[in-house]
């Protein structure tokens, strides 16, 4: 009834091309942004930040990054954990080597370092596809984790082999280290998420996004109409790794504060982010958010419901969670390969007509 | 310029076509022991519709793949616009102004009609990754400019109503039309059509024939056409190359080719006695 585009005429191609063509969508988007920036920082506490908001925002960045590679460019990667580790260790090295430089630049720098590493491990994609590429990226995962464990230079020869984030501030407010307040943690992640999501949207709707999708849908035809496959694939690897590197840097510096590489960035992390984009929706920015929210919220919800509410043992709940996620992935792959994002789209299509039949 | 010049060639319906745009000289293409194309030479002249016909397996599509750079000929030379073409990747050939459609539809099925045709203009888009990420200056301007050009093609092909539909959902005939649109979007000098009317009903064939003639007429695009429907070939094309078992057995205007004994033998079969 209210959700429709009737009467909302576009008079320029730019207007027709905007991200939210329907007016109500634009208002909803602005309302969400307003709540995220002007309401949540004032009410957030440590529990909400650590259990839900900060991991959700960081995983959303990683999921967008992986979605660019897998969902948009069609190159399957199982190296997400390894690339997040590159981001984390690059950030740590930059933070300790240049203590006077702003942490935001360190995090961006970590993104660029990861992008370079991503391109390097993306080179095999020029020759191999599908499962074989997945195995090649899996090798990257194990190699990178091994590297950060074995070479002491990466953890500055610390006795524990861990890396610890020293305190760094933005505009005088600590955002890393033990004195960080929940709202500052939340806000710095939020700013990164908003800017990166906006950039991802711009990339995917423009020339480079179309060349990625062309490679994904029909690589031979793409090359024959003029897409340079080398450039398309490597930019996808670079941009994707940039996002994942920033996610890794934030995960280490802002969220955890101290990291042991095998534990924080193991193969489970690669699968976790992959599950996010499968459940959320391949080839969709919104789906990356939906998937990240789902995978972050599910354990919290189950814990509160089953352990807190019904008194079940914790280990049983943890196993149940694995079973639920596994079942959902199978269901989504069979019934709705485009994930939650597609369900959302279908819902919106229905709403546009509601309550009329046509 | 090393271009071979010809007397202007006047077609049967009185149109004049010009110099050679492309020349294929002694092309041979081998896959291991299999000879797909054996020592074929012909030229394609500015503004003509050049048909390649022949029975199944004659090497027609291989020939098109040689022209579009998908195969590198084992022997022989491809001359394009007066210069010998070095071995190059298909996307480089596309940049030289050669576009094509495929025998089996090769659209980007997850993308909308609009995005498919926009992708056809990729060789003309120059904005940097950073500009695109920030949707800044050139990136934004380019998107609008190219959209205008693409909208003209959409109008020309009468597919306005499916502009935002994912092409995977479209019926076969429309998909073929979108694919033609994607090739046209590059504003090619040379357009290669691999069986554009395969599997179509009479009405769809008539529509497609009209589009091909209009492209040739209005945009002056040179067209190379592979087609099995002889009626269509004879009506549309200015000159015809006939292939059989990888060899060229006829070359000339449709009427002449139709009377050629070798061609009749190849198509109707000949008794060996």
From TrEMBL, chain A:
Keywords: Cell membrane, Membrane, Transmembrane, Transmembrane helix
Protein name: Amino acid/amide ABC transporter membrane protein 2 (HAAT family)
Subcellular location: Cell membrane
Regions that span the bilayer: 27-44, 50-69, 76-95, 101-123, 130-148, 183-200, 236-259, 271-298, 318-335
Main subcellular localisation: membrane
GO molecular function, one term: branched-chain amino acid transmembrane transporter activity
Membrane topology value: Multi-pass membrane protein
InterPro entries, alphabetized: ABC_transp_permease, LivM-like
Alphabetized CDD domains for the sequence: TM_PBP1_LivM_like (cd06581)
Any single Gene Ontology cellular-component annotation: plasma membrane
Organism superkingdom: Bacteria
From TrEMBL, chain B:
Domain ABC transporter residue range list: 22-270
InterPro entries reported for this sequence: AAA+_ATPase, ABC_AA/LPS_Transport, ABC_transporter-like_ATP-bd, BCA_ABC_TP_C, P-loop_NTPase
Cellular component aspect of the GO annotation: plasma membrane
Taxonomy, superkingdom: Bacteria
UniProt-listed Gene3D superfamilies: P-loop containing nucleotide triphosphate hydrolases
Keywords: ATP-binding, Nucleotide-binding, Transport
Alphabetized GO MF terms: ATP binding; ATP hydrolysis activity
Family annotation (PANTHER family): ABC TRANSPORTER ATP-BINDING PROTEIN, CONSERVED COMPONENT OF ABC TRANSPORTER FOR NATURAL AMINO ACIDS-RELATED
Protein name: Amino acid/amide ABC transporter ATP-binding protein 1 (HAAT family)
């Amino acid at each position: 009834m209210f959700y429709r585009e009737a009467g909302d005429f576009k008079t320029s191609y730019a207007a027709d091309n905007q991200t939210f063509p329907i007016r109500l969508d634009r208002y909803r988007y602005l309302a969400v942004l307003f709540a995220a920036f002007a309401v949540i920082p004032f009410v957030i506490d440590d529990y909400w930040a650590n259990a839900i908001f900060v991991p959700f925002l960081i995983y959303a960045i990683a999921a967008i990054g992986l979605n660019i590679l897998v969902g948009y460019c069609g190159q399957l990667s199982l190296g997400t954990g390894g690339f997040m580790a590159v981001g984390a260790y690059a950030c740590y090295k930059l933070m300790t080597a240049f203590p006077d430089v702003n942490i935001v630049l360190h995090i961006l720098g970590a993104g660029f370092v990861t992008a370079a590493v991503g391109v390097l491990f993306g080179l095999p994609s020029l020759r191999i596809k599908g499962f074989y590429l997945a195995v090649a990226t899996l090798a990257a995962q194990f190699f990178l984790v091994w590297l950060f464990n074995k070479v002491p230079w990466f953890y500055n020869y610390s006795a524990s082999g861990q890396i610890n984030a020293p305190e760094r501030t933005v505009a005088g407010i600590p955002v890393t280290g033990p004195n960080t307040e929940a709202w500052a943690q939340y806000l710095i992640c939020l700013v990164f998420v908003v800017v990166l999501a906006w950039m991802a949207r711009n990339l995917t709707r423009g020339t480079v996004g179309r060349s990625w999708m062309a490679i994904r849908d029909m690589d031979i035809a793409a090359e024959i109409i003029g897409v340079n496959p080398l450039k398309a694939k490597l930019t996808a690897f670079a941009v994707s790794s940039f996002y994942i590197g920033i996610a890794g840097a934030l995960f280490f510096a802002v969220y955890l504060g101290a990291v042991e590489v095998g534990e924080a960035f193991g193969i489970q992390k690669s699968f976790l982010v992959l599950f996010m984009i499968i459940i959320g929706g391949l080839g969709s920015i919104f789906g990356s958010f939906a998937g990240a929210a789902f995978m972050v919220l599910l354990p919290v919800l189950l814990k509160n419901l089953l352990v807190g509410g019904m008194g079940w043992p914790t280990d049983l709940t943890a196993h149940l969670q694995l079973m639920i996620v596994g079942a959902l992935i199978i269901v989504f792959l069979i019934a709705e390969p485009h994930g939650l994002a597609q369900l959302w789209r279908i819902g919106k299509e229905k709403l546009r007509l509601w309550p009329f039949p046509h | 310029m090393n271009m071979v010049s010809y007397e202007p060639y006047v077609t049967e319906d009185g149109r004049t076509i010009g110099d050679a745009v492309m020349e294929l000289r002694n092309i041979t293409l081998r896959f291991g022991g299999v000879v797909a194309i054996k020592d074929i030479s012909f030229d394609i002249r500015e503004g003509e519709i050049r048909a390649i016909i022949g029975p199944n397996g004659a090497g027609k599509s291989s020939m098109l793949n040689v022209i579009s750079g998908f195969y590198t000929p084992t022997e022989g030379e491809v001359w394009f616009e007066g210069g010998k073409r070095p071995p190059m990747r298909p996307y480089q050939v596309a940049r030289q102004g050669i576009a094509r459609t495929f025998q089996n539809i090769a659209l980007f099925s997850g993308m909308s009609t609009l995005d498919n045709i926009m992708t056809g203009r990729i060789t003309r888009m120059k904005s940097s990754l950073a500009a695109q990420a920030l949707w800044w200056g050139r990136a934004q301007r380019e998107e609008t400019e190219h959209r205008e050009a693409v909208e003209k093609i959409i109008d020309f092909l009468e597919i306005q109503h499916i502009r935002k539909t994912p092409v995977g959902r479209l019926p076969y005939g429309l998909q073929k039309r979108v694919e033609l649109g994607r090739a046209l979007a590059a504003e090619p000098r040379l357009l290669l059509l691999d069986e554009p009317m395969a599997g179509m009903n009479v009405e769809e064939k008539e529509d497609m024939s009209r589009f091909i003639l209009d492209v040739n007429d209005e945009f002056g695009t040179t067209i190379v056409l592979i087609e099995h429907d002889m009626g269509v070939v004879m009506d549309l094309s200015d000159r015809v190359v006939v292939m059989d078992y990888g060899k060229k057995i006829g070359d000339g205007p449709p009427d002449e080719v139709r009377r050629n004994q070798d061609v009749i033998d190849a198509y109707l079969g000949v008794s060996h006695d």
